[in-house]
Amino acid sequence: MGGSHGATGLNFELSCDLIYWGCGKTASIDYGGQRVKKISKILEERARLVLIVSGLTLILLGNAFDYHILKINIAELLAHVGALLLIVGLLHWIFDMSIRRQLTQEIFEAVVGAGRTSSSGIIDVNHNSREVSYEKLINSAKRLIIGEHYSSRFFEDNAPHIRARLARGDETIALLLKPETFAARYLVESRSGHGRVSDQLEKIREITTISASVQSKARRKPNGFLIKWHSRVLRYSFVMGDDLVWVRFFTNSEGYSLVPAVCVSKGTPLYEFFLTDVTRLLEEAEDATN
Fold it and tell me: In which element (H, E) is residue 72 found?
């Protein structure tokens, strides 16, 4: 038993020595690697200085004596090598300074630009406004404002959700272009609209009339569906909820193309701009009588 304990103690001491030696060696290797990295970093940072100083030293040394080996002018060779190192160092310094300045400027512009974009309130973008999903906005908004010229596409694409919303009696306002106004005639004559005004409005009425026929409860509520006429050529169409607004742009040129849409969140300068504009448009609009 005593021999067994002695062997065990010897093995334990040997294991500790091996572990200590291994840890010490690992630490030594890590420390050595860190020193090499540190020296490499210093040399990299001071490479220009080393090249310039070495070049000047060799130029001065080459002009301090005259020595030939096998018809080779060693002094002249040293001076030429020194001039080469000096030129390389200067070019390295000039290139590094110009690239660093340009890179710093690009990073600054990118960071500032990203900061402006993030603080503007834009939280989503879709390059094709027809692919935007309005289901969540239509179903959740307590007050929904839809601003169009007279296009029925939004109402047709989202008819089931709009009908369900109107059946619940949730406040929904459709700002549409009043027929027979100067703006309506202009859009038709300039071929900037979506066909005949009356046809488009009739499609909207069909969707909302079907909804109205099943929303007898909603009609008894203070807030329900309301059409208001505006007489403006809109710069953008929109769908505004309680906390965000989707904005769809119009093209300046004639013809049809994929139109992008952006979503702006509440509590930002861009949202406040749209909110103020929509509020003024509501104040200027008149209630539809039919």
Answer: strand 72-73
User: Cα(208)–Cα(243) distance, rounded to whole angstroms?
Assistant: 24
The CATH code belonging to domain 126-287 is: 3.30.870.10
110-167 pLDDT per residue, tens: 666 667 777 788 899 999 998 999 999 999 999 999 999 988 899 999 999 999 998 8
Q: Are the C-beta atoms of 147 and 274 separated by less than 8 Å?
A: no
Nearest 5°: the CA angle 278, 262, 272 is: 35
**Range in 32-46, 137-151, 209-223, 269-283 the model is least confident about:** 209-223
Listed in order, the ranges of the chain carrying CATH 3.30.870.10 are: 126-287
DSSP reduced 3-state for 133:
coil
Strand 72-73 relative to strand 122-126: parallel, antiparallel, unpaired?
unpaired
Distance of CA 7 to the CA centre of its chain: 69
Amino acid identity of residue 229, one-letter, is W
CA dihedral 235, 279, 288, 260 (to 10 degrees): 30
Q: Are 176 and 205 in contact (CB under 8 A)?
A: no
Say if residues 207 and 163 touch (Cβ distance below 8 Å).
Answer: yes
Give the tokens for residue 290: 């039919």
Angstrom distance (rounded) from CA 71 to CA 73: 6
Quick one: which H or E segment has residue 164? Answer: helix 159-168
Q: CB–CB of 140/290 below 8 Å?
A: no
- Dig out the tokens for 81 from the structure: 């090598």
Exposed/middle/buried for 253, CB within 10 Å: 0-12, 13-18, 19+? exposed
DSSP H helices in 46-146: 47-62, 74-120, 135-140
143 - beta bridge partners? Answer: 171
Tokens representing residue 63 in the block: 């002009």
